[in-house]
Prior knowledge:
With 341 residues, this protein is an alpha/beta fold.
Amino acid sequence: MEKEPLLGKTLKELEAIVVQNNLQIFVAKQIADWLYKKNISSISEMTNLSVKVRNRLEEIYEIGKLPPIKGQVSVDGTIKYLYPTYKGKFIETAFIPEKGRATLCVSSQIGCRMGCFFCMTAKQGLNGQLSAGEIINQLISLPEHNRITNIVYMGMGEPFDNIDEVMKSLEILTSTYGFGFGPKRITVSTIGVIPGIKQFLYESKCHLAVSLHSPFDEERQKLMPIQKIYPIKEVLNEIKKFNFGLQRRISFEYIMFKNLNDSPGHVKELTRILNGIRCRINLIKYHTIPGSRFEPSENESIIIFKDALNNKGIKTTLRQSRGQDIYAACGLLSTKLDYSG
C-alpha cells in the first residue's frame, strides 16, 4: 500500500490525522514543526514523539519529499531544477539568485491547458495538477532552500486553475506553524481566471500579478484564448472592487512583441484601462519559442514604451531576462521531453 505524504498538510489537516490515530491534539503542531521548520526526511526523526507514535504514523504516512533529479546552471547564475512528481511525470523550477535576494519560481501544474500561443508550457498541454505538498516540495527540497527570500508562482501552469492546492500551499508558506514567509515576499501570477482571483484576494495577503500583454480585446484574444472566457475588462473590474491598501501590490506582466503590442496606441489604451488602479507594469522581452510566428520587440522600442508609460504616471520597469540559455526564462519551461506519455 502506498503511504500518504504529510508534506503539504495544513495544521487543520494534521489535527484531523492525530485525532484519527487517537493522539493528543498538540501532536499536530509538533508534526508541523518537524515538517516545515526542521526539514526532516523521515518520521523517525520526530524525536519528541514516542517511538510507538512514530511507528504508528510510519505505517500509513511518509514525509513526501522528492529531491530534484537534475539541475542546469545558466551563465547568469540561474539554476533550473527538474523535479519528479507522484504522478510519474516532471516539473521545472527556477532558482534565481540576485544581489541581496534569491527568488524561487515555482510551478503549480504539470504543463498548462490555457493555450497561450507564445508559451512553451502551453504547447505541452496539461498533464496533471500538483498537490500542495508537491508545490511546497520545490522549496523544501531545493539545495539552496536556506537562501530563498522571495517566491513567485510563475513557473509551469496557471495557479488559479489549481486554486485549492495553491491556496493550501500559500497558507503553509505564510503561517506561523509553517514557513513564516511574509505575504509581501510571495507573488502569484495569473492570466486572469476571475473566480481564482476573487478567492485569492480575499483569502490571502500575497501580491497579485496579472498577465496582460495587450489592452485590446481582439488582439489579446489572438495571444491568449482565456480572453474569450474572462475578458480583461471584467478582470480589471474585479480588481478595482478590491482595496489593496499600501502593503499589497498589483502588477501587470506585459510581454513585448514586435509590431504587435508596442505602439503609442497601446500606451494610450493601457493608460485608459488601468486608470484608478494603483499598480506597476513589468515589461518582458519575448523569448522566442520553436514554431512561433512572434518576434521580440526591438530594445529601443521597449525603452521608448517604458518611458512613455512612466511619463503617463504608471510605474513601469523592464524585467531582466534570467536563465534564457537553459530555457528557464519566462514562457520557456516545459518537461514534455522529460517523460514518455
